[in-house]
């Protein structure tokens, strides 16, 4: 009997070890895929093959930067536009027309699911921009010469398109900026604005503003399969999709028809299979050449190791706590200031980010061209005694909502919420913390049932222009959207932001944005918490790596040194 029990215990123990191994280990990328290849390890959160439809303010996946091109890039973290699919551009004297001349001899990807019959041209730009604007000029009407009638596939496309959301473009109200987009020549596009707007070109350089193939969309809409535009991508970039295993990996292969310099690495594997703690294990096991979104508390494991480098850059992001100004109690600015003074932001930054972030005393991050070195702290200095004096005997209970997902700007949101709860309870405020999903929050906002007093959130910009940083999260136009979770609308802020758009002088624009920022700092609709550095751990075999403030890497610029033996 004892022998049987021992055997059963041994079998059970082996099963437990097997389960544990399956839970904590991740599948290795097949060796056949890594020949002349580089492995980039990251997470699968918010993964999308089409940045047009990606959730604004969430981390853009590095994949899309390799597949697509945009009209412009921003040069070296400045305000200077660098043409990509555009060759040049000009702006009319009244500031309302932008003429963009396009690059020639650019080919779309030839894949297993699409073979292009023509090169990139103005129709692709018109289609791509009109798609996110909701315009009805994206696909043509049939004209037989004798009879002109509506093309059924045209109707199908627009019925499908109405159901697709473009969060970034909706958050910046691009459809209220651009009146029309049309092709004036095969290699020229004319954009007409409702009024002069200095931010439009920078929006067209954002990581969301990729150019799609109109020919591919026509083919898909004819088959009533337009959803494939977002799942089997076709672009003009240096790499194209070879295959994708959901939540495991994406395989990219070099585009032999790329219009720019040839990529030096044939295969790129984007490994999506691990969480933060698992990624550093895979990296140390030489299963990743580059690893992103690591558990920052484990970075000490890389110290004194000359095989790896830690690459960092200032990020265009902000972690913050938003007040819900729909609540009567929250509408008192003195109350908001007292809550701000209760929160030890230095402790939060040290505990959550382990020296990979700094306390945010501004709204505009340091890396933006509109950032200023010193601004008044107003209500943000930690002063629990002053807060306790104001809040004494008020018997207040606050509901804090927090997303149950990790983001670049907040790797441990639930833990951060608990730190904030602890700080507020020290000054006599009771706090209930509720974890919510993004889907739940969207539903609550749509039905006007968002019952939070404060919400822990953040923002990731797609470019360095302060307009796309502050307008989505604080403007009247986004007041009922998921981006403006404070539900704040304040006329002096709107005036300063709008004044910044009607001048092309960079110093004047920066001055107006800083006026807008000072208004936010004085009225406290949000409490800025931290600006987070973008980090990559890189094997020293990788050469040519340069990371953007948005965490993106251009793989076509990379090469791999031979492994020493």
Automatic annotation (TrEMBL):
<feature type="signal peptide">
    <location>
        <begin position="1"/>
        <end position="25"/>
    </location>
</feature>
<feature type="domain" description="Solute-binding protein family 5">
    <location>
        <begin position="81"/>
        <end position="479"/>
    </location>
</feature>
<keyword id="KW-0732">Signal</keyword>
<protein>
    <submittedName>
        <fullName>Cationic peptide transport system substrate-binding protein</fullName>
    </submittedName>
</protein>
<dbReference type="GO" id="GO:0043190">
    <property type="term" value="C:ATP-binding cassette (ABC) transporter complex"/>
</dbReference>
<dbReference type="GO" id="GO:1904680">
    <property type="term" value="F:peptide transmembrane transporter activity"/>
</dbReference>
<dbReference type="Pfam" id="PF00496">
    <property type="entry name" value="SBP_bac_5"/>
</dbReference>
<dbReference type="InterPro" id="IPR039424">
    <property type="entry name" value="SBP_5"/>
</dbReference>
<dbReference type="InterPro" id="IPR030678">
    <property type="entry name" value="Peptide/Ni-bd"/>
</dbReference>
<dbReference type="GO" id="GO:0015833">
    <property type="term" value="P:peptide transport"/>
</dbReference>
<dbReference type="GO" id="GO:0030288">
    <property type="term" value="C:outer membrane-bounded periplasmic space"/>
</dbReference>
<dbReference type="InterPro" id="IPR000914">
    <property type="entry name" value="SBP_5_dom"/>
</dbReference>
């Amino acid at each position: 009997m004892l022998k049987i029990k021992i055997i059963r215990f041994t079998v059970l123990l082996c099963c437990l070890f097997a389960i544990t191994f399956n839970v904590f280990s991740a599948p290795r990328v097949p060796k056949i895929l890594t020949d002349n290849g580089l492995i980039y390890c990251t997470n699968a959160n918010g993964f999308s093959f089409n940045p047009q439809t990606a959730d604004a303010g969430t981390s853009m996946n590095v994949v899309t930067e390799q597949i697509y091109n945009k009209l412009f890039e921003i040069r070296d973290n400045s305000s200077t536009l660098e043409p990509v699919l555009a060759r040049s551009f000009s702006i009319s004297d009244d500031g309302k027309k932008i003429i963009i001349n396009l690059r020639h001899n650019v080919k779309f990807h030839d894949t297993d699911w699409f073979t292009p019959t023509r090169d990139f041209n103005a129709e692709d730009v018109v289609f791509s921009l009109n798609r996110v604007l909701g315009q009805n000029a994206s696909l043509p009407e049939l004209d037989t010469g004798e009879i002109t009638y509506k093309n059924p596939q045209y109707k199908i496309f627009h019925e499908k398109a109405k159901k697709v959301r473009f969060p970034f473009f909706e958050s910046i109200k691009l459809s209220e900026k651009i009146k029309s987009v049309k092709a004036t020549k095969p290699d020229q596009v004319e954009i007409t604005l409702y009024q002069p707007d200095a931010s439009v070109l920078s929006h067209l350089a954002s990581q969301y503003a990729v150019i799609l193939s109109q020919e591919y969309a026509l083919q898909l809409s004819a088959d009533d399969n337009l959803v494939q535009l977002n799942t089997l991508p076709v672009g003009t970039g240096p790499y194209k999709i070879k295959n994708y295993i959901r939540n495991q990996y994406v395989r990219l292969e070099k585009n032999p028809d790329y219009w720019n310099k040839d990529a030096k690495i044939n295969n790129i594997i984007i490994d999506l299979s691990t969480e933060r703690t698992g990624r550093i294990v895979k990296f140390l096991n030489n299963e990743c050449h580059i690893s992103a979104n690591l558990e920052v508390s484990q970075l000490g494991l890389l110290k004194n190791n000359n095989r790896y480098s830690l690459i960092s850059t200032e990020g265009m992001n902000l972690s913050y706590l938003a007040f819900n100004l729909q609540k009567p109690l929250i509408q008192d600015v003195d109350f908001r200031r007292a809550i701000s003074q209760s929160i030890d932001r230095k402790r939060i930054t040290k505990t959550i980010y382990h020296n990979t972030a700094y306390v945010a005393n501004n709204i505009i991050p340091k890396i933006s061209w509109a950032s200023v070195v010193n601004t008044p702290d107003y209500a943000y200095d930690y002063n629990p005694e002053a807060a306790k004096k104001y809040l004494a005997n008020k018997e207040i209970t606050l509901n804090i909502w927090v997303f149950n997902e990790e983001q670049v700007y907040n790797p441990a949101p639930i833990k951060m919420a608990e730190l904030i709860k602890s700080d507020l309870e020290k000054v006599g405020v009771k706090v209930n913390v509720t974890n919510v999903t993004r889907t739940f929050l969207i539903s609550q906002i749509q039905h006007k049932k968002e019952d939070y007093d404060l919400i822990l959130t953040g923002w990731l910009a797609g470019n360095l222009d302060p307009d796309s940083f502050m307008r989505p999260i604080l403007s009247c136009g986004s007041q009922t959207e998921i981006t403006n979770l404070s539900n704040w609308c304040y006329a002096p802020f709107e005036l300063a932001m709008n004044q910044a758009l009607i001048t092309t002088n960079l110093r004047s624009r920066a001055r107006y944005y800083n006026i807008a920022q000072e208004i936010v700092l004085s009225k406290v609709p949000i409490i800025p918490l931290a600006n987070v550095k973008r980090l990559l751990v890189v094997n020293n075999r990788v050469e040519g790596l340069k990371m953007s403030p948005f965490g993106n890497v251009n793989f076509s610029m990379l090469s791999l040194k031979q492994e020493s033996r």
